[in-house]
Amino acid sequence: MPDAPLRAGFGARLAEAVSRRGPLCVGIDPHPSLLHAWQLGESPQALERFAMTVVEALADRVALLKPQSAFFEAYGSAGIAVLEKVIAESQQAGALVLLDVKRGDIGSTMTAYAMAYLDERAPLAVDAITVSPYLGYGSLAPAIGLAEQNGRGVFVLARTSNPEGVGLQQSVHGSGDTVGQYIVDSAAESNLGKEPMGHVGVVAGATIPAGELDFSDLNGPILAPGLGAQGATVKDLKAVFGRALPHVLPTTSRDVLRHGPEVKSLRDTHTRLADDINHQLND
Fold first, then answer.
1. 102 is an active site residue
2. 212: Cβ–Cβ under 8 A, 6 or more apart, which residues?
3. CA 156, 223, 233, 265 torsion-angle sign
4. What CATH number does residue 114 fall under?
5. How many distinct structural domains can be found in the chain?
6. Domain residue limits at 225
7. CA-angle at 87, arms to 143 and 203, nearest 5°
8. How confident is residue 3, by pLDDT bands cut at 50, 70 and 90?
9. What's the pLDDT at 1?
10. Is residue 200 situated within a structural domain?
11. b vs e for 214-230, b when ≥16 Cβ sit within 10 Å of the residue's Cβ?
């Protein structure tokens, strides 16, 4: 039997954070175009200036920050050092950190990925990670199990917001459902009986057609990318997610980050967007 979690379950921690700070998740994506827009150039020092400005502006007011690991990895060990700092200081300010790494593998390799991000002793330990189920949902068992043991979470790619994913994710699985629905239903099984919700979330874009997926049994959070630059609006959330809306975490990156580098501008943009989301969700 696994040891008891050292903290409350991820579902409970996330629900509490959202109740205080709202559901909006902001990505930290140090894309080269944004670094240049901020007049920082491309270097480890520029990366740190960008990322830590976002942390300063938002970590004390959002429930969830989502660093995109690839943009840090691109700078090698110096970039990973910045990522460690982002994680530590974001958590110190009260934000949960969802590291967008989209890991997926089998056996001992998946276990190693899980240990890298979900183990208590890991330098890159975060509150949750994104994972890819396309080697089979069962291949994610090491991450799902370690996350539950340590009070952390995983978000499984189900129906992403990029157009290239449609053909695969809408194809028919052996269960008779679409691949996307099969992943949602598999996550639901992992979350059975958990209160107030389970630790296995799914990623489902705010740009997908309304009613395509049934989230009614998920009992877990839904990360919904696609707001702004990818075409989805706050009004689309109700149509796409319906009764699952209370568990939705609308996600944006560029629509907030392009308003830097001033901390006040980033905060003001976040406040406007968060207020719009809260108004739409409570209307």
1. yes
2. 159, 170, 178, 180
3. negative
4. 3.20.20.70
5. 1
6. 10-282
7. 45
8. low
9. 41
10. yes
11. ebeebbbbbbbbbbbeb
Separation CA 107–CA 32 (nearest Å): 35
Neighbours of 119 (CB within 10 A): 14
Closest by CA to 69, choosing from 41, 98, 93, is 98
Average pLDDT over residues 139-151: 98
Of the candidate ranges 55-69, 126-140, 222-236, the one whose mean pLDDT is the lowest: 222-236
Is 265 in contact with 239 (CB distance < 8 Å)?
no
Domain-located, residue 2: no
Task: State pLDDT tens for residues 177-212.
Answer: 999 999 999 999 999 999 999 999 999 999 999 999
* SS3 label, residue 80: helix
84 part of a folded domain: yes
Instruction: Please check whether residue 196 is in contact with residue 12, taking contact to mean a CB–CB distance below 8 angstroms.
Output: yes
Q: Is 134 helix (H, G, I), strand (E, B) or coil?
A: coil
Q: Which residue would you say has higher pLDDT here, 264 or 235?
A: 264
Is-contact 250 226, C-beta < 8 A? no
Is 56 within the bounds of a domain?
yes
> In this model, does residue 97 exceed pLDDT 60?
yes
Take residue 26 and report the two structure tokens written for it.
């902001």
CA distance 218 to 231: 26
Q: Which of 85, 102, 194, 238 is catalytic?
A: 102
